[in-house]
Write a structure and sequence with these properties.
single chain; alpha/beta; TIM Barrel; nine-stranded mixed beta sheet; two-stranded antiparallel ribbon; 11 strands; about 25% helix; about 20% strand; globular
């Protein structure tokens, strides 16, 4: 069986905030852009047949509500609804969902899917949160709010996986011990960006930043016609059982990982990584 509890589609590297500790390193990624809708629909057609079952599909960024074709992307998921039971859009509370996005959410509900918005509450930064709550309540769409304000930081705050430097003195035993305690394979998050499925967000972000290079059996290129479906499924299953090159540059995602206050903003001119 090839499964994922959560399959995330990273649809834009544009964002309304510039968070220093952004898990996706969005402020530091070159050439901010939206993945075109037609590319995403093609990726859906290539990705979903690889899985026997997915718990939830998440649309993330960046800020997904910046994508001009978000409504069409959401409705583009509906032909694959037999593979999953829920769609979630994660947003930072700075933008209201458009009427077209609300309509797409209703269409997902009518198709028998659970649908919700996860809104991260960053206090004054999430200036549209009250309006979002009111809108979604009025439209009968679930809204989950994760609070990251002052001393009320969900999970104690954000965490930093690492600084993308190689842990040169780490032994194989230490690597496997770190992997065995990492929550990523247990939570079964698979992250997809521009037609590539990664084992976790750190593997994706480090690759996009050029901090390390994954070997061919550590990711799935949906656009590769020479690799069989069976081989792609085999690689997806290894995400749960084997560390990757990214793990050698990471401190791991653990219950006791250091936490930091969420959404600390970079100055506008700052962009080094």
């Amino acid at each position: 069986m090839t499964t994922a509890k959560i399959l995330e589609f990273f649809i834009t590297t544009r964002c309304t905030l510039r968070c220093r500790e952004c898990l996706c390193a969005v402020p530091f990624l070159p050439n901010p852009h939206d993945t075109p809708k037609q590319d995403l629909l093609r990726h859906f057609a290539l990705a979903f047949p690889l899985y026997d079952r997915i718990g939830r599909v998440e649309i993330i960024g960046g800020e997904p509500l910046l994508h001009p074709d978000l409504a069409g992307i959401l409705t583009g998921l509906l032909p694959y609804r037999s593979k999953f039971s829920k769609i979630r859009v994660t947003t930072n509370g700075t933008l209201l969902p458009s009427p077209e996005v609300i309509d797409a959410a209703h269409r997902a509900q009518e198709a028998g899917l659970d649908f919700d918005f996860l809104v991260d509450d960053y206090g004054p930064l999430s200036r549209k949160l009250p309006e979002i709550r009111e809108l979604l309540a009025r439209e009968g769409i679930d809204c989950r709010v994760d609070r990251y304000t002052g001393d009320c930081q969900r999970g104690g705050g954000w965490l930093r996986y690492g600084d993308f430097t190689l842990r040169e003195h780490e032994t194989e035993d230490q690597l496997w011990r770190k992997f065995s305690h990492c929550l990523c394979p247990r939570l079964q998050f698979h992250d997809t960006h521009d037609g590539v499925i990664y084992s976790c967000v750190y593997a994706m972000t480090g690759t996009l930043l050029g901090k390390f290079q994954l070997s061919k059996n550590e990711y799935v290129n949906l656009n590769d016609p020479l690799t069989s479906v069976e081989e792609k499924q085999r690689v997806l299953r290894t995400f749960l059982t084997h560390p990757t090159t990214a793990c050698r540059y990471c401190d791991g995602f653990r219950e006791d990982s250091p936490r930091f206050p969420a959404a600390e903003q970079l100055p506008k001119e700052a962009a080094p990584c």
